[in-house]
Specification:
The structure is a single chain. The protein has 53 residues and is mostly helical. It has one domain. Helix content is 43%, strand content 0%. It contains three helices and no strands. The relative contact order is 0.13.
Length: 53
Amino acid sequence: MLERLRVAGETPVTFAELRGGEIDFPAAVMGELELNAYASTNAAPPNAFGRAF
C-alpha cells in the first residue's frame, strides 16, 4: 500500500483502488498510518450533509 501511495505522489488514491490492490480495509489501514505520523488528506467530495467520508 505504501508503494501504491508513493507512486501516486500528489494524485489522490481512492479506497476502491486500494481494495483492488488487495487491501481489504483501506480506511483502517489509513487510520493506522495516521497514528504513525504518515500524513493523509481526505480527497472525497462532501456528501449531502457537507461531510466527506
